[in-house]
Amino acid sequence: xxxxxxxxxxxxxxxxxxxxxxxxxxxxxxxxxxxxxxxxxxxxxxxxxxxxxxxxxxxxxxxxxxxxxxxxxxxxxxxxxxxxxxxxxxxxxxxxxxxxxxxxxxxxxxxxxxxxxxxxxxxxxxxxxxxxxxxxxxxxxxxxxxxxxxxxxxxxxxxxxxxxxxxxxxxxxxxxxxxxxxxxxxxxxxxxxxxxxxxxxxxxxxxxxxxxxxxxxxxxxxxxxxxxxxxxxxxxxxxxxxxxxxxxxxxxxxxxxxxxxxxxxxxxxxxxxxxxxxxxxxxxxxxxxxx
Length: 291
Description:
CATH class of the largest domain: Mainly Alpha
Shape: elongated
Order of helices and strands: EEEHEEHHEHHHHH
Distance between the termini: 10 Å
Number of domains: 3
Structural class: alpha+beta
Helix content: 55-70%
Strand content: 5-15%
Largest sheet: 4 strands, mixed
Number of strands: 6
CATH architecture of the largest domain: Up-down Bundle
CATH topology of the largest domain: Butyryl-CoA Dehydrogenase, subunit A, domain 3
């Protein structure tokens, strides 16, 4: 079974004080890259949250966030009474010293001065963290299910591409025998054009022809490519994560296809090689998004 690295999970719950939303999404990446967006209340839990994510997700670029619909209520505005009194007394003394009328609405001016308001920050209690951690696990579970469903779609595409490569590989055999015959006829024709027929040693020609055609024999590459395709299918059916292994197998498949192309010496076989390369590129692109 394969899983995609693309996934999304979201969990929402409500307490008496707030509505908590946990959201997590992931994209493909070579390693596990976690980016967190947390309100100040949860900063102390960042390491624990990262550990929860890393224990559940093997790879991917992960964006994680916790949000509150009423986050402003975390900051309860309180008048700093002592600061206001000090400002008031200082202004009153200054007005008396300068002989300036002390206005009754001076409080409106004072309240715009620094430190007249302060915020009472709440502490994260154990009960709320228990609720939030449960939501985090739920969001991670949803993301994992999303990855599984995406993986099923990837598997269908990969199987289709593999089937086409194997079909092209099967079709190669149709043209191989004719390819050897054409090569023999072409070489014999060139020989007859440049050497008198009575001077041609056919036994020597046949021996040299065998050595020549051996260089263009693609049977070994065909066998290895078929084995690589079988191994690719077996790996897809193995437990995740298996994306890196699939990528390595695809590279080996590419080497065999390229070798077949270099040995082909036949236009029809080259067309089949191009088709196999096209399907292999699709496989490589899909493999980049496999966990």
